[in-house]
């Protein structure tokens, strides 16, 4: 058994001291590997940059250890049977995938800092915490003795984050005999009755999709923060959610986000933790794990996260449509949809998937993935007369791949959809998954089956609609953030131009109000700074509109059959 011991001397430094004890060594050279990335965020994160002072010893005597790559070490053991590795880790990143140490808590994602002993990752791993006696531990791993956790292997160890503190709150609800623990760390006033009622409802609905649950229990580890924040990360039988501000937890806006991220992360317990792309079974933590099915792993999960809340009546249909409409606005906010397919964008996650990148280059696998999942769900229902749906596909993925521990390929998923819906779904993959065809007409037609429509709305922001540029404005500056291709703005403006005046009037976070008071049938003159140089440019209004807004709405003239289709889809009255 490999043993990991965590301690600290001054929590305000945020340095955590880690000792790895390696018994029964028979190697002259021992290799240690720190993960280069974490599941749930498909980019290299270089965790090794937060380690300090890696040393090794055998029988109390120092032995040589040196790096051979940025996150791999070799230990010259001299054949010693028992080896100790010591180092410090800087735990000061408060988000769903980070770690944090202070005087009130130790929150740790082991994948950030716990080294794997090569060729021994299959062995049990013990994690012992030197923390105050009155601290409790929230974690998906069993606590075999006070403040000591046990994992069956290294992958499970680093896929089981924990929060340890004296101020944890916990309530448990049970569905199908499975306990689901909701842990809260941080200042807030939870309405536990409401939380448990809503969580139980969406959990039951998710179990109905798949039939059973992959693990014996589940833990929602919530870091409730005193400032605005939103992030969640999935794990084998838990999730870490960072959310704030805590005093607003039960207000409609933040509570909606709390429900949304919790439902999303629970769905991941099946989809990606068990139903996993073949390229990631097993995970290779040493480098990129390229895959093209992010639209399944993340896109379908994004769709179901909110959809399940409506199906379980935690959300009203109107609340759910609000979420769908937000997704639509994000999708149509730029022209990236014209340049890279959602499958190619999945592959390129490892390049720049979580960065703004250059304008209009790639689509979000979360956003387009969710919309293509909605499209597929409705098309399958239409093609099969409501006999089959995306639920059918997900159940088959679970039964045929997830349960059996087999990774699915891109073609496996496609063939499954074709088997459920028919060969006409080749077009779906060619156009909307592997291609960049516009989705609007297909989505509108699919929505018609449930008595709804994809509606276009006039963009109220004049600088977006008439001139084709977006801005961000605060008390210091008004800056150009995006420009529509072939728009009037594209001929005279550049990203990061700082706008100072329009037609001689100073802009003070009020560009929309100034434009609304002007004759926009004429050119306007913009005064701006570009690279600290003052410039003046003229913008011509266009008859074409830019940054069109879309929304999904019910059709007043929907037929009784369409209303029935709506009810079968959403489990709510039209």
Summing up helix and strand content along with how strands pair, one would put the structural category as alpha+beta
Q: How much of the sequence is in beta strands?
A: 25-35%
User: What's the quaternary structure here?
Assistant: single chain
Alpha-carbon distance between the two ends: 58 Å
Provide a compact summary of the structure.
By secondary structure, the chain is of the alpha+beta class.
Supply database-style keywords.
six-stranded antiparallel sheet; alpha+beta; eight-stranded mixed sheet; 30% helix; 574 residues
Could you walk me through the main structural features you see in this protein, from its secondary elements to its overall organization?
With 574 residues, this protein is of the alpha+beta class. The protein contains 16 helices and 29 strands. The strands form six sheets. Strands 5-4-8-2-1-12-15-14 form an eight-stranded mixed β-sheet. Strands 23, 24, 25, 26, 27 and 28 form a six-stranded antiparallel β-sheet that branches. Strand 23 and strand 24 (478-483) form a beta hairpin. Helix 3 (252-268) packs across helix 4, helix 5 packs across helix 8 and helix 9 packs across helix 10 (410-421). The longest helix is centred in the middle third of the chain and has 19 residues, at 192-210.
């Amino acid at each position: 058994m490999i043993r990991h011991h965590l301690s600290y001397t001054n929590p305000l430094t945020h340095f955590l001291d880690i000792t790895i004890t390696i018994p029964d060594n028979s190697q002259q050279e021992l290799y240690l590997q720190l993960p280069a990335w974490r599941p749930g965020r498909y980019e290299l994160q270089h965790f090794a940059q937060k380690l300090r002072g890696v040393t090794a010893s055998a029988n109390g005597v120092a032995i040589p250890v040196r790096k051979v790559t940025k996150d791999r070490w070799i230990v010259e053991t001299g054949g010693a049977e028992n080896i100790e590795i010591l180092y410090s880790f800087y735990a000061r990143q408060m988000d769903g995938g980070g770690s944090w140490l202070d005087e009130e808590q130790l929150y740790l994602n082991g994948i950030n800092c716990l080294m794997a002993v090569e060729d021994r990752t299959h062995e049990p791993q013990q994690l012992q915490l030197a923390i105050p006696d009155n601290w409790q531990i929230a974690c998906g791993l069993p606590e075999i003795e006070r403040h000591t956790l046990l994992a069956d292997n290294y992958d499970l160890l680093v896929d089981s984050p924990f929060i340890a503190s004296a101020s944890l709150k916990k309530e448990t609800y049970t569905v199908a005999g499975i306990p689901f623990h909701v842990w809260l760390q941080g200042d807030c006033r939870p309405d536990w009755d409401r939380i448990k009622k809503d969580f139980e409802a969406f959990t039951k609905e998710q179990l109905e999709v798949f039939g059973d649950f992959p693990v014996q229990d589940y833990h929602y580890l919530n870091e409730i923060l005193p400032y605005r924040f939103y992030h969640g990360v999935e794990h084998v039988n838990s999730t870490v959610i960072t959310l704030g501000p805590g005093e607003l937890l039960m207000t409609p806006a933040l509570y909606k986000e709390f429900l949304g991220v919790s439902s999303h992360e629970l769905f991941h317990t099946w989809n990606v933790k068990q139903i996993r792309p073949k390229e990631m079974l097993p995970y290779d933590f040493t480098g990129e794990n390229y895959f093209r099915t992010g639209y399944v792993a993340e896109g379908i999960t994004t769709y179901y996260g909110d959809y399940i809340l409506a199906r379980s009546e935690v959300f009203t249909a109107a609340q759910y449509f609000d979420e769908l409409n937000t997704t639509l606005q994000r999708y149509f906010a730029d022209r990236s949809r014209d340049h890279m397919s959602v499958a190619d964008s999945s592959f390129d996650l490892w390049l720049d998937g979580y960065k703004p990148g250059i304008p209009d280059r790639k689509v979000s696998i979360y956003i387009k993935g969710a919309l293509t999942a909605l499209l597929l769900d409705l098309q399958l229902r239409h093609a099969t007369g409501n006999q089959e749906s995306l639920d059918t596909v997900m159940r088959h993925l679970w039964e045929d791949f997830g349960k059996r521990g087999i990774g699915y390929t891109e073609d496996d998923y496609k063939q499954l959809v074709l088997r459920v819906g028919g060969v006409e779904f080749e077009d779906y993959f060619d156009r909307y998954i592997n291609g960049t065809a516009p989705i609007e007409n297909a989505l509108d037609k699919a929505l018609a089956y449930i008595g709804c429509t994809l509606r276009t709305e006039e963009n109220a922001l004049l600088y977006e609609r008439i001139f084709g540029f977006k801005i961000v404005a605060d008390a210091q500056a008004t800056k150009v953030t995006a420009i529509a291709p072939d728009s009037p703005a594209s001929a005279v403006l550049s990203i990061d131009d700082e706008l100072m005046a329009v037609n001689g009037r100073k802009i003070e976070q009020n560009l929309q109000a100034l434009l609304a008071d002007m004759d926009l049938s004429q050119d306007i003159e913009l005064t701006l700074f570009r690279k600290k140089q003052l410039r003046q440019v003229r913008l011509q209004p266009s008859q074409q509109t830019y940054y069109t807004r879309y929304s999904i709405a019910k059709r007043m003239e929907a037929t009784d059959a369409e209303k029935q289709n709506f009810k079968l889809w959403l489990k709510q009255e039209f």
